[in-house]
Write a structure and sequence with these properties.
8 helices, single chain, alpha/beta, globular, TIM Barrel, three-stranded parallel sheet
Length: about 220
């Protein structure tokens, strides 16, 4: 299994506060069956410390003796002119590839389809993080976004009734590429795929391998 979105790198954002918590989260990932884990600390207009994150990631890997494969990316919070910073090499992509995990405001309506289109024509492969959170998106928006981007939803969303209709539409129309943990800690935002797996096996069994067992291109 693969987890492409998590905040396990210690003491860099609102995720794991120290290396002990990080190790526990890695252990939980492996217990869940995830052997390929992409650490995606937040980056934003105010937080473009790419070199520091790479340094911290390399130090972290040296202190992990759990059998798994760790990679570095980021979760970029959208801001104007971010494509300029991306092209200038200031933003972490997924395992130093053309793939980019990007999140948007949940309250300020944003034309996500235009943004991912602009990324795609420049040769990038956008992944829209936790798309279920953007209440201003319509089902038609989902289809338009999926023309130019891959779509990720959080495993926790399956336990929340407010997302039920959205997830049903996205999965029924085969628009989801990844289910990820987006884990931050061991308590309020843990790594837990159990209910998501149960739902997929029961209602969308034909998508199970794609969603949980397929290794993304950017990790090959």
């Amino acid at each position: 299994m693969v987890d492409i979105h998590c905040h396990i790198l210690p003491n860099v954002d609102d995720g794991a506060a120290n290396i002990d918590i990080s190790k526990k989260l890695i252990k939980k990932e492996v217990d869940e069956g995830n052997k390929y884990i992409v650490l995606t600390p937040h980056q934003s207009k105010r937080e473009l410390c790419k070199d520091l994150l790479i340094e911290k990631f390399n130090e972290f890997k040296d202190n992990i003796d759990i059998d798994c494969n760790l990679y570095l990316g980021c979760e970029l919070y959208y801001y104007e002119k971010f494509i300029r910073d991306l092209e200038d090499g200031l933003i972490l992509t997924m395992n130093n590839s053309k793939y980019l995990l990007i999140e948007f405001s949940t309250t300020l309506e944003t034309n996500i389809s235009d943004i991912v289109y602009d990324l795609s024509i420049k040769g990038y492969k956008p992944i829209v993080a936790h798309i279920e959170r953007y209440d201003y998106l319509t089902f038609d928006d989902y289809n338009e976004i999926a023309r130019y981007a891959e779509i990720q939803i959080n495993s926790e969303a399956f336990t929340m009734s407010c997302y039920k209709k959205k997830l049903k539409y996205l999965l029924k129309n085969n628009l989801v590429t990844y289910i990820a943990s987006d884990c931050h800690n061991m308590t309020s935002r843990p790594c837990d795929f159990s209910y998501a797996k149960k739902v997929i096996l029961k209602k969308y069994k034909d998508q199970y391998d794609k969603l949980f067992n397929t290794i993304p291109e950017f990790l090959k």
